[in-house]
């Protein structure tokens, strides 16, 4: 049975290092990492007929009969012997032979660098850590110091190539993404963005950036002998930063990074015309990561705490609050408030959630086990404040960005629930895949609310393959539709409903297995489409068909991101009338976040979250009311 991304020790000798940070050295990806990477299989190109057949099956629950029969005709035409499909398939297979991964560059461009919506809400996920016990600025800075030390401890494992290899279903995973999350940043362009990574440069960075009251500072985190600053030293430096950024009337320069990418690309070119600005921007881009010391946010009840913390991570609360206290292009930004709230936001282009979560798990453990070590107080230089020359044009861009940000903030509706009735334990006790069980609960919730099934996306890891990213598990299936339609039918027997549930759960698990083995349909279809753009004069009709558009209109965009830490992950919906649902299933409870847009009358995050709780409980009671012997 496939297990979760087991963070087990490598069998390849990449055993966990003791957590001592070695002196920083020029990081060179060498022996062990490369040997591991070289052993990974290449992403396959699935057979054409298989994808065509599975595409039709995936359309059945989400398009009407007429559309489906039209799509069947188009597919038959596309896949006929000697047809356009075969030609594209051959080109794709040639591409696969020539590259390390036929998909990864295309995916990076399509999903991220060419995608022009703001990264805020539309792309960058947030993570809320368990609430810490501090409640004042000393506590905030002390925690920040420990967190920085913990991240540097993890960085040492990256630098020494001793990050434990992850496994999925007993197979080792590609570790490339770990080398992309530190010292990197997205850079806006007029039509396409880029990502820079300074970790491999001849002089890798030794500083992080800290932002407080919208003012950015360069904080050197290594001593001249290459040892990392101790927590005490970091605390002292943070205090200096705090004391020289007390003014609260500064221009929120970072808010520019929340704009539509073309707008930001233009504003960026204008901003960096000035040398001072260019140097400051480069210092942020090059830094190992960013720490945002946030101003206090409005207090809310304990019940609302997680939902409020989720939006603090996703967007910072608007221009009045902490949205300007960010550089949203930065790959990794830790966010720490005064009230014990902490978490992070990450720019998604370089990596998926699991490497970020591994880092968090390490850092959280580190902050718990840390003991104060008195360090000789050698005076350290004052961290450098980054200057920005705000010309009238830059000021205008900031004002526009503030307005747009506030509109986006108002539009995002987020509800976090800690589902405490059960976790992975209940589905496991009924011999069901917990992930598939949760996905079927989501299908049931959606059906109950809308009386229809919708295109549903669940992330599947492709990291069994070299440079693998993700494919799509289509959770709405013929079997899930049969299950959700029967569930509230009084005429149906419980035994029949349980049988339908089991069938749907099994079908989902089967799709998952197929996806993680590189045999799902979505990235293959994308590949064929992009190949058509390269090879053909006109677009094959299946890609212009309504069914294909419906297939990609994910009213439910979901992702499981398991963590050891009891954290909540969150992201925005991907369509105007959709939901974003992220969950972290623990042994005995499940953390969920549900997002939606307020501008859509049909969606409501709290209602969907409630429907999900009800669906999970109803599925559990159905299983418990139906004696096993009868199954
Ligand atoms: N009976 C009993 N136990 C079962 C079971 C069954 N029929 N099926 C599964 N289980 C157990 C597993 O052994 C596992 O046990 P563990 O908790 O001891 O490890 C656990 O239940 C979880 O398995 P399951 O719920 O089936 O899911 P999974 O962990 O295999 O995850 C995906 C499924 C799709 C999430 C995973 O394959 C994946 O791709 N993850 C990456 C997703 C990702 O990248 N997300 C972020 C994108 S940015
Ligand atoms: C810290 C949790 C991050 C989860 C992010 C995630 O799941 O991103 C998906 C990536 C992918 O390629 O499937 C995209 N999604 C948010 C739209 C589901």
How does this model look, in words?
By secondary structure, the chain is of the alpha+beta class. Helix content is 43%, strand content 13%. The strands form four sheets. It has an eight-stranded mixed β-sheet, with helices on both faces. Strands 12-18-17-15-13-14 form a six-stranded mixed β-sheet. A two-stranded antiparallel ribbon has the order 2-3. Helix 11 (302-314) links the parallel strand 8 and strand 9 (332-336). The two termini are 22 Å apart. It binds coenzyme A (COA) and ligand HC5. The site of coenzyme A has 27 residues, from helix 12, helix 15, strand 13, strand 14 and helix 17. Ligand HC5 binds at residues 125, 127, 352-353, 356, 457, 459, 470, 557, 559, 561, 569, 571, 574, 582.
Q: Gyration radius, to the nearest Å?
A: 25 Å
Report the strand count. 18
Name the structural class. Answer: alpha+beta
The CATH homologous superfamily of the domain at 117-163 and 181-412 corresponds to: Choline/Carnitine o-acyltransferase, domain 2
Walk across the major sheet and give the strand order: 11-7-6-8-9-10-1-16
Query: Biggest sheet, open or closed, and with what strands and sense?
Result: 8 strands, mixed
Shape: globular
Quick structural gist:
The chain has 631 residues and is of the alpha+beta class.
Question: Which labels suit this protein?
Answer:
single chain, alpha+beta, Fumarase C, Chain B, domain 1, Chloramphenicol Acetyltransferase, eight-stranded mixed β-sheet, six-stranded mixed β-sheet, 18 strands, disordered N terminus, binds coenzyme A, binds ligand HC5
Question: In terms of topology, how is this protein built?
Answer:
Layout lengths: L30 H8 L9 H12 L5 H15 L4 H15 L5 H10 L5 H4 L3 E3 L8 H23 L7 E2 L2 E2 L11 E4 L6 E4 L9 E6 L2 E6 L10 H13 L17 H11 L3 H12 L3 E4 L8 H13 L17 E5 L5 E5 L6 H17 L14 E2 L6 H20 E8 L5 H5 L4 H17 L5 E6 L8 E5 L3 H10 L6 H23 L5 H14 L10 H7 L3 E5 L7 E3 L8 E7 L4 E8 L7 H21 L6
Parallel strand pairs: 6-8, 8-9, 13-15, 15-17
Antiparallel strand pairs: 1-10, 1-16, 2-3, 4-5, 6-7, 7-11, 9-10, 12-18, 13-14, 17-18
């Amino acid at each position: 049975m496939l297990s979760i991304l087991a963070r087990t020790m490598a069998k390849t000798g990449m055993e966990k290092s003791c957590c001592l940070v070695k002196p920083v050295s020029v990081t060179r990806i060498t022996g062990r990492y490369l040997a591991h990477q070289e052993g990974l299989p290449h992403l396959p190109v699935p057979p054409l007929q298989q994808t065509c057949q599975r595409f039709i099956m995936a359309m059945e629950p989400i398009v009407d009969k007429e559309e489906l029969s039209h799509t069947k005709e188009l597919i038959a035409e596309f896949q006929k012997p000697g047809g356009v499909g075969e030609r594209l398939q051959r080109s794709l297979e040639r591409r696969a032979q020539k590259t390390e991964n036929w998909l990864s560059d295309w995916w990076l461009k399509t999903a991220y660098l060419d995608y022009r919506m703001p990264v805020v809400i539309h792309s960058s996920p947030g993570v809320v850590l368990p609430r810490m016990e501090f409640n004042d600025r000393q506590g905030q800075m002390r925690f920040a110091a420990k967190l920085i030390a913990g991240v540097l401890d993890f960085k040492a494992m990256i630098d020494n190539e001793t990050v434990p290899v992850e496994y999925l279903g007993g197979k080792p995973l590609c570790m490339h993404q770990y080398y992309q999350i530190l010292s990197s940043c997205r850079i806006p362009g007029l039509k396409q963005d880029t990502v820079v990574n300074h970790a491999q440069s001849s002089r890798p960075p030794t500083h992080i950036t800290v932002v407080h009251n919208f003012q950015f500072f360069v904080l050197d985190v290594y001593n001249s002998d290459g040892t990392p600053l101790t927590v005490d030293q970091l605390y002292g430096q943070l205090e200096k930063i705090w004391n020289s950024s007390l003014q609260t009337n500064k221009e929120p320069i970072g808010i520019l990074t929340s704009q539509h990418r073309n707008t930001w690309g233009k504003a960026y070119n204008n901003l960096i015309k000035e040398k001072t600005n260019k140097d400051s921007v480069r210092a942020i881009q090059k830094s190992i990561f960013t720490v945002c010391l946030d101003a206090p946010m409005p207090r809310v009840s304990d019940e609302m705490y997680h939902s409020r913390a989720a939006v603090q991570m996703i967007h910072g609360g608007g221009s009045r609050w902490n949205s300007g206290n960010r550089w949203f292009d930065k790959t990794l930004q830790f966010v720490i408030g005064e009230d014990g709230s902490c978490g992070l936001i990450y720019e998604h282009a370089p990596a998926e959630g699991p490497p970020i979560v591994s880092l968090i798990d390490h850092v959280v453990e580190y902050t718990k086990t840390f003991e104060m070590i008195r360090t000789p107080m050698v005076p350290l230089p004052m961290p450098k404040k980054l200057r920005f020359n705000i010309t009238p044009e830059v000021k205008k861009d900031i004002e526009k960005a503030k307005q747009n940000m506030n509109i986006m903030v108002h539009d995002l509706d987020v509800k976090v629930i800690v589902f405490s009735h059960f976790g992975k334990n209940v589905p496991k006790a009924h011999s069901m895949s917990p992930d598939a069980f949760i996905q079927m609960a989501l299908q049931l919730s959606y059906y109950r609310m809308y009386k229809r099934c919708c295109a549903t996306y669940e992330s599947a890891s492709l990291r069994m393959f070299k440079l693998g990213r993700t494919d799509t598990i289509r959770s709405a299936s013929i079997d899930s539709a049969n299950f959700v339609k029967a569930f509230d039918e009084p005429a149906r027997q419980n035994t029949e409903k349980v049988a339908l549930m089991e069938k749907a759960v099994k079908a989902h698990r089967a799709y998952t297995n197929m996806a993680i083995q590189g045999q799902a349909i979505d990235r293959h279809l994308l590949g064929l489409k992009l190949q058509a753009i390269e090879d053909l004069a006109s677009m094959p009709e299946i890609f212009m068909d309504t069914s294909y558009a419906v297939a990609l209109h994910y009213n439910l965009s979901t992702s499981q991101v398991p963590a050891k830490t009891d954290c909540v992950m969150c992201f925005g919906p991907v369509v105007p009338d959709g939901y974003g649902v992220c969950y972290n299933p623990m042994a005995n409870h499940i953390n969920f976040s549900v997002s939606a847009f307020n501008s859509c009358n049909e969606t409501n995050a709290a209602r969907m979250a409630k429907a999900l709780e009800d669906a999970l409980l109803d599925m559990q009671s159905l299983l418990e009311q139906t004696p096993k012997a009868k199954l």
